[in-house]
Specification:
Shape: globular
Number of strands: 2
Largest sheet: 2 strands, antiparallel
Number of domains: 1
Strand content: under 5%
Order of helices and strands: HHHEEHHHHHHHHHHHH
Helix content: 55-70%
CATH topology: Ammonium transporter fold
Strand order of the largest sheet: 1-2
Distance between the termini: 74 Å
CATH superfamily: Ammonium transporter AmtB like domains
CATH architecture: Orthogonal Bundle
C-alpha cells in the first residue's frame, strides 16, 4: 500500500522545472539569480574596483557615477531601450528595433521569452545595459563633469548600445550574418572599450599625466571589487544561456578557467618585466581574462578557455603598456586595453576555439575556422567603427550642451568636493 501511494504521488506531481504554459521554473530561477549577480557586478563590484583605482579626492565621484548610471540606465531601458534593442523594427529590423515595447508595453506577467517570463528576460538584459556605460567611466575618470557623464551615458545607451545589441542579439544583421557573441564581447566589451578610448582622446589627459604618478589610492577596495566582479561574472556569462542547462554550466566553467589563467599570466608578465608581481596586476589580469572569454564562454571547451585566458593575460598586458607609455593616452583605468582589446581578442578567438576540430581545445560547433573568424572580424570592425564615430559625435554634443570637462582648479581640488560637496574620507 505504501509503495502504491508513493507511485501515485509521483505520477500526480508536476515537475518543478516546467508546466503546461511552457515556462520552466528551473530556467526562471536561474536567470533571476543571474540577474542579481550581474547587478552585483556594478553595485558594488565595479564601483569599488574603480573607486579604489582613482585618487582619494575622486573616490566618491566614481561611486556616485556608477550608482547614478545604474538608476538612469534602468529608467531609459524601461522607457525605450528594451524596445530598440529587442523589438521588431519592421523594415529597419536589421539595424534597430521598433517602438512597440516602449515602457515595456506588451511585457505582461504571462508573456514568455523562450522558457522564462519576458519580464525576467528584460530585467536580465537591463543589467547589461547598466554595466556597459558604467565601464566607460574608467576612460574619463577624475575629469568629467557629473552632468556631462549622465547626458553622455543617456545618449550613448540609445544611440550606441541599443542598436549594436539589436544587431547581435535582437535579430539584427550581425546575428543573421552568424557572428558568435555568447555574452557580450562585441555588445559590451568592445563598445565600452572603444567608447572609453574615444572619451580619453576627446577630453584629453588628466592634469599632470604622464609626468605625475597617479597610483590607486586604496588597493583594498579594488581587490574587494575585483572579487565581486569575478563572482558576478558567473551570472553574466552563465546567465546568457537563458536556461539552466549544459551551456550555462560550460559557460561558467570556461569563465572561471579564463579568469584564473588571465590573472596568473598577467602576474607572470609583471614579474618578468618589472621584477615583482602586484595586486593591481593580478586583478587587472583577472578582468582581462573575464572580458576576453565573455563572447566565447558558451561556445568553447575548457582547453580553449585556458588558452583564451593566457592570451588575454599577455595581449592585454602589452596593450596597457603601449596605450599608456608609448601613445601616452590617459585612459585612466585601462578600459580600452583590458575590455576593448580583450573583447576584440575574445571575439576573434571564438571563431577558432568554437570549432569541434581541435581535439582537447575544441568547442561544440561544426564550423570552418577560417570562415567563422572572417565573420567574427566583420562584427569587430562594424562594432569598432560605429561605436567610435557615434561616441565622438555624442561627446561633441555634450560639450556644447553642458561642457564635458571640469576646469583645472576643480580638477586639482577633486570631483568629490566640486561635484558633490562631500569627501570620501573624513580623517
Amino acid at each position: 500500500m505504501k509503495g502504491f501511494l508513493t507511485v501515485a504521488l509521483m505520477l500526480c506531481a508536476s515537475p518543478v522545472f516546467a508546466n503546461d504554459t511552457g515556462i520552466s521554473g528551473a530556467d526562471t530561477a536561474w536567470i533571476m539569480t543571474a540577474t542579481a549577480l550581474v547587478l552585483f557586478m556594478t553595485l558594488p563590484g565595479l564601483s569599488l574596483f574603480y573607486g579604489g583605482l582613482v585618487r582619494s579626492k575622486n573616490v566618491l565621484s566614481v561611486l556616485m557615477q556608477c550608482f547614478a548610471i545604474t538608476c538612469l540606465m534602468s529608467i531609459l531601458w524601461v522607457v525605450v531601450g528594451y524596445s530598440l534593442a529587442f523589438g521588431d523594427g519592421g523594415s529597419l529590423n536589421p539595424f534597430i528595433g521598433g517602438l512597440d515595447n516602449v515602457l515595456l508595453a506588451g511585457v505582461l506577467e504571462g508573456t514568455l521569452s523562450g522558457t522564462i517570463p519576458e519580464s525576467v528576460f528584460a530585467l536580465f538584459q537591463m543589467t547589461f545595459a547598466v554595466i556597459t556605460p558604467a565601464l566607460i567611466v574608467g576612460g574619463f575618470a577624475e575629469r568629467m563633469r557629473f552632468s556631462a557623464v549622465l547626458l553622455f551615458c543617456a545618449a550613448w545607451l540609445i544611440l550606441v548600445y541599443a542598436p549594436i545589441c539589436h544587431w547581435v542579439w535582437g535579430g539584427g544583421w550581425l546575428g543573421e550574418l552568424g557572428v558568435m557573441d555568447f555574452a557580450g564581447g562585441t555588445v559590451v566589451h568592445i563598445t565600452a572599450g572603444v567608447a572609453a578610448l574615444v572619451a580619453a582622446l576627446v577630453l584629453g589627459n588628466r592634469r599632470g599625466f604622464p609626468q605625475q604618478a597617479m597610483p590607486p589610492h586604496n588597493m583594498t577596495l579594488t581587490v574587494m571589487g575585483a572579487g565581486m566582479l569575478w563572482v558576478g561574472w558567473f551570472g553574466f556569462n552563465g546567465g546568457s544561456a537563458l536556461a539552466a542547462n549544459g551551456d550555462a554550466g560550460m559557460a561558467m566553467l570556461a569563465t572561471h578557467i579564463s579568469a584564473a589563467a588571465g590573472a596568473f599570466t598577467w602576474m607572470l608578465m609583471e614579474r618578468i618585466r618589472f621584477g615583482k608581481a602586484s595586486a593591481l596586476g593580478i586583478v587587472t589580469g583577472m578582468v582581462a581574462g573575464l572580458g576576453t572569454i565573455t563572447p566565447a564562454s558558451g561556445f568553447v571547451g575548457p582547453g580553449g578557455a585556458l588558452l583564451i585566458g593566457i592570451s588575454a593575460g599577455v595581449v592585454c598586458f602589452l596593450a596597457t603598456i603601449y596605450i599608456k607609455q608609448r601613445l601616452k593616452i590617459d585612459d585612466s583605468l585601462d578600459v580600452f586595453p583590458v575590455h576593448g582589446v580583450g573583447g576584440i581578442l575574445g571575439t576573434l578567438l571564438t571563431g577558432v576555439f568554437a570549432s569541434n576540430a581541435l581535439g582537447v581545445f575544441s568547442g561544440q560547433e561544426e564550423i570552418s575556422i577560417v570562415s567563422q573568424v572572417s565573420t567574427q572580424a566583420i562584427g569587430v570592425v562594424a562594432t569598432v567603427v560605429y561605436t567610435a564615430v557615434a561616441t565622438w559625435g555624442i561627446l561633441k554634443i555634450t560639450d556644447v550642451a553642458v561642457g564635458n570637462r571640469v576646469d583645472e582648479d576643480q580638477e586639482q581640488e577633486g570631483l568629490d568636493l566640486v561635484s558633490h560637496n562631500e569627501r570620501g574620507y573624513d580623517l
